Structure formats: C-alpha cells, structure tokens
Amino acid sequence: MTTRRQAFDEAVETDQRNLLVIAAPGCGKTELLAHRALQQISLLAEGRQILALTFSNKAKTNLNGRLNDVLGVERKRRFVVVHNFHGHSAEIIRCHGRTLGIPVDFEIPTDRTQPDIVDAYLEGLTEREADGVRALINSQLGEAKRGPYSDDEVLARLRDTGDQRSVLVEEHRQRTGVLFYDDLLRHGQRLLRVPEIARLYRTHFQSVMVDEFQDLSPQQLDIVLRSSDRSRTVVGDPLQGIYSWTGARPAENERLLRRISGDPLSLGTSYRSSPNVLRILGAVSVELGGAPLAAADPENWFEGGTAAGFFFKTGADEANFVRTTAAEIHERAPEATIGVICRSGWRRKPVDSAFTRSGTPARRWDLATDDPEVISRIHDAVDRLGATPTLDQLRTHVLTNAESADSETFAALVEALDALDEMVAESGSVMAAVSRLRAAEDVAEGITPGIHLLNAHVGKGQQFDWVFIPGFDEGNMPSFLAKSASERAEELRVLLVVISRARHGVVITGAASLISKKGNPYSVAPSRWRPLVRGSMTHSTRAELVSHIRRMYSDHQSSS
Ligand SMILES: Nc1ncnc2c1ncn2[C@@H]1O[C@H](COP(=O)(O)OP(=O)(O)OP(=O)(O)O)[C@@H](O)[C@H]1O
User: Fold this and answer.
1) CA separation for the pair 269, 300 (Å, rounded)
2) Is the CB–ligand 1 distance for residue 215 below 6 Å?
3) Which of 502, 441, 514 is nearest to 466 (CA)?
4) Which of 50, 57, 316, 542 makes a 20 to 30 Å CA pair with 228?
5) pLDDT value at residue 368
6) Long-range pairs for 175-180 at CB < 8 Å and ≥24 separation?
7) How far, in Å, CA of 189 to CA of 170, rounded?
8) Dihedral pair phi/psi, residue 295, rounded to 5°
9) Which atom of ligand 1 is nearest to 500's Cα?
10) What is the whole-number distance in angstroms between the Cα of residue 30 and the centre of ligand 1?
11) Which residues form the UvrD-like helicase ATP-binding domain (predicted)?
C-alpha cells in the first residue's frame, strides 16, 4: 500500500465530523465520496440515510453512477438519497411548508413559470424595451431571494430597488401561490432554520456529501450545512471554479468550510492523467496559485503520455491537422476516447467543418442537439417570437427567460445558441436551423469510444484518453468577453479544466488567421498563455507526435 493510497484511505475512513477535501483534478474526489458512503453505511442507525446533494442534474448522474459502481444499485437505493438542490428544497417544502404558512400543494416550477408571469407585465413595451426590463426584473427577483427571506421581506427588498414592475410580479406570484425556482431554495433554506425541522433532517440524514463545492452559491451551501450535521463530507477544487457567472462563490464557500472543518485534506496525486499531461496541467495550476501535480502510477503510461502544441497559418490548416490526427488515433485504437474540446462554439467551427467535409465520424456535443430541455426552450422562444425572429432576438429572448434556470441549463443554452449560430450559416435561415434541432441520446451516461466534439463548460467532470484543444488564441482563450482581471482568471481556470480532462495525451493548437462570418480572413494573436505551456511540450514536431501514436498503438495495447 502506497502513501498516496493511504491519503485516499485516510480520507475515506476518518471519523472527523466535518471533512473538507480540496484536491486537484483527477485526484479522486468523486471516487472518495462513493467510498466514504460505503464506509458510512455501516455506521448508520436503523432506517437512517446518507444525503448527497449536487448542483446540477449532470453532476447528479455522475455521482449516482459512481455510487452504483461502489455500493451496488440495491444498497445505493436503500441508503443514499441523491438530490439536486431544487429537488431537496421542494421536498422540504411539501413536508413542512405549513409551519411557516407556505402552501404545500404547489406545482413544481417549470421553465415557463416565471417568464409567463413576468411577460404579463411587459405589455405595451417594444421588443427591445421588453428584453431590457425582463432581464432587470429577473435579476432583481433573483437577488431579493438569495437568502432565507419571508415573502414580506422579499417584497420589502424589491421595493428598495425602486422598480415597480419587479414588485408587481412578486405580488402577483404571492397572490396566486405560485413558486419560482428561486422560491424553492429560499423556502427550503428558511424551513431548515426552524430548529425542529432541521432536527428532523439531521436525525434522518446522518451524513451529507457534496461534490464540487466551488460550484455552489452560499445559499446552497447553507442548505447543505443545515440538512445534516453528524457527518459532513464536502469536496471540491476552487481552481476549477468556472461558474461564478451563475452565482457560485468558491472563495466564500471555502472560507466558511475551513472555519467549520479546519484545514482541508488533500489527495495529492492524479489517478486520471499521465505524467506529461500533468506537467502542463501543473504549469497552469501553479500560475493560478495551486501546486504541481504528480501521477499516481507514473510508470504505467506509454512513454509518460503526451503534451504537444502546434500552431498553424490558418484555422483550416489547424482543423485539418486536428481531424487527421484524431482520425489516426481512432483508426489505430477504436476503443480510445478522444475529446476535441474548444472554449467557444464559434471557434470550433473550422474543426466541425473539417469533420463534416471529410466524413470522419465524430459525436458532436452540441447541446442544441443533445439536451431535450435546451431544445424545448429554443422551440418555445421561436413560438413566442412568431414569424421570423433574428438570431439576436432569439438569443435575447432565450437567455433573459433563462435567468432562473440552474447554472447547468444556462450554460447549455449559451452553448446551444452558439451552435445554432453556426447552423444558421449552413441552413440559410434561423427557422431552417431551428427545425434541424433534434433531441439525441443523453451524453451524461458516459463517454463512448471514438471522437467527440464539445465545448469547454460541458466537458467538466468528464475524461478522455486524448484531448485536443483547438483555438489556443486571443479572443477564444481567453475569451474576448472576459474584460476584468477576475474574468480572465476564470478563463485560465477554464484552460485548467479542459487540460485536466485528458488521460494519456493533450494536444493544443492555434491559428494565426481565421475567416470572419462575412468570409474575410483576419489575424489573431496567440494566446497570452502560450509561454506558460510551451516549456511542458513533449513533442516538438507533428512527425514526432504521429510516430509516438504509431508506436503506442502498435507496441502497446492502450496505456493504463
Ligand atoms: N483511489 C483511487 N484508486 C484508483 N483509481 C482512482 C482512485 N480515485 C480515483 N480514481 C480514478 O481516477 C479518475 C478520476 O477520479 P475522480 O473523477 O474521482 O477525480 P476528481 O478529483 O473528482 O476529478 P475532477 O475534479 O476533475 O472532477 C477516475 O477514473 C477514477 O475512477
């Protein structure tokens, strides 16, 4: 048994009442939760359970899968309840809402619940005015509810903002007994502040577990802490915080958790990635204030793995290289998983076209075609906008109405609209592109062998044998939308998250010239982070990389 293994086992077995684990990507945080659940089941009193809370449905699927693997389906079902925050809060309200006069026979809100009421207060405005006012109302409502406030307190907070429409919407909601998503969390949090109610949950759930605490809002973390206090296991990695735009507060959460739990445990070594992937990942991690990373079994990786970077004159040359190299890996090792992960949908376009033109099979994780909820929101927006909306109208409508969605859905919508942008160019009109949107099988079930084309935020929590990162240039990495220092730091964390999806190899590429929407070439500068990763490259020419791939898949039956 190695020291590294001991760190993991100690974290699994510790009887520390509040356990905080902060560890780098691939070090086994999710795995730890599953093993800790197994260990804690033996400590549960008769009829008691473990509560696992996740911030998104995708995280819920991921954790459920690990728990099923480690515990077995039956034991998992009997002893562990996995909820997202809305589901957990809704259940608390149904069971105990009466205590605070909250109606318990409410309907679970849908994507339309809040927009339908808000829209009723926008009559008489031009479309443009309506978009602005809708966004304002949504954000004021969200802000006024981000705490354990009663209905009266929410109204008072809204009156302070001075916007009469937000007050009217909230009065309407209260009058009709409807709940919005934000109300579920608010009431859940309020009810857990009633000592008798908290005691019931704390008695039943003798353990609570949370993955990726960096993605939680302080309100969600409060719900975690109040739901169970006998044994709490919270894991995460603030350096992977890429959702601050949806209300996540990694630093604030970490401060509170350290106060409660003391110093965090660390897992230290990566079980996911090869030494050469970890060198480049370490360089980014150190730049972000983190530590270098070591592989749990460094000798297990063929030639130590791969980290390569190549830069091309044009986006078309770059795309062609990515396609041919990924295809070569796929032909030689059909069981290998290959992710082509790009920061933004628009920048992936030349790569997508190269795959389409050549007929090389690749699975596109365009959320527009993968997520039924996203598709229904877009179809809904088209119905509401009528006749022939422009893409800008569609984007504004979809995003302003999505303010109350969970962060995952919001991110999915942004990505889907980017994908739609590309499809409009191909299809000739917005309506033609929208009609091409079709639900596909669920990508959250696991990654199939072969080539996958996806954008950065959806790749979170996944892993591939090979990761290609096209578009390592200014405007894409970092995104041109990141203006402040903190926004740019979040972009560097996106780079960390993307690199850390790789098991054996990571290949970073960029181009000096791209083609605009109007068909004109324009120059792009290399990413400002190129010097950061340059020193960690293991192959300096494309020929070297290709010969590594050929050696690997002729001499060696897939690494690790
Ligand atoms: N103790 C362990 N022994 C062997 N393999 C492990 C161990 N812990 C994790 N793994 C494997 O390593 C990979 C990464 O683990 P996991 O997803 O739990 O890491 P993580 O820290 O949650 O990563 P991320 O922060 O990127 O989500 C998985 O394939 C997992 O099965």
Assistant:
1) 14
2) no
3) 502
4) 57
5) 44
6) 176/117, 177/103, 177/106, 178/106, 178/107, 178/109, 178/113, 178/117, 179/93, 179/106, 179/107, 179/109, 179/113, 180/109, 180/113, 180/114, 180/141, 180/145, 180/404
7) 19
8) -85, 140
9) 26
10) 6
11) 2-274
Question: Rounded to the nearest whole angstrom, what is the distance from the C-alpha of residue 461 to the centroid of ligand 1?
Answer: 10
- The minimum-distance atom of ligand 1 relative to the CA of 236 is 25
DSSP string for 140-172: HHHHHTSSS--HHHHHHHHHHHT-HHHHHHHHH
Distance 560 CA to ligand 1 centre (A): 14
Q: State yes or no: 308 annotated in a binding site.
A: no
Q: 8 in ligand 1 pocket by Cβ < 6 Å?
A: yes
Residue 459 beta carbon below 6 angstroms from any ligand 1 atom: no
76 is in an annotated binding site: no
* Distance (Å) from CA 29 to ligand 1 centroid: 6
212 pocket-lining for ligand 1 (C-beta < 6 Å): no
* Best CA proximity match to 499, nearest among 544, 539, 529, 523: 529
Classify residue 239 by its DSSP letter: G
Would the annotation count 30 as a binding residue?
A: yes
Is the predicted pLDDT of residue 478 greater than 50, yes or no? yes
How does the average pLDDT of the chain come out, rounded?
89
CB-side neighbour CA atoms (13 Å) of 318? 30
Reduced to 3 states (helix: H, G, I; strand: E, B; else coil), residue 263 is coil
Q: Are 21 and 264 in contact (CB under 8 A)?
A: yes
Residues 6+ away with beta carbon under 8 Å from 85: 53, 54, 55, 185, 188, 220, 223, 406
Cα four-point dihedral sign 35, 90, 189, 254: positive
Amino acid at 251: A
* Arithmetic mean of pLDDT, 530-553: 94
Strand partners, 269: 294
Choose among 172, 173, 170: nearest CA to 158.
170
Q: Which of 467, 537, 526, 524 is nearest to 311 (CA)?
A: 526
Please state the pTM of the whole predicted model.
Answer: 0.81
The predicted pLDDT at position 439 comes to: 45
Q: Is 499 in the pocket of ligand 1 (CB under 6 A)?
A: no
H-helix or E-strand spanning residue 85: helix 85-96
Q: Where are the beta strands (DSSP E) in 470-517?
A: 502-515
Q: Look at ligand 1, atom 5, and give the residue with the nearest C-alpha.
A: 271
Q: Is the CB of 29 under 6 A from ligand 1?
A: yes
31 within ligand 1 shell (Cβ under 6 A): yes
Helix axes 29-41, 3-13, angle to 10 degrees: 50
Contact criterion met (CB below 8 Å) for 449 and 379: no
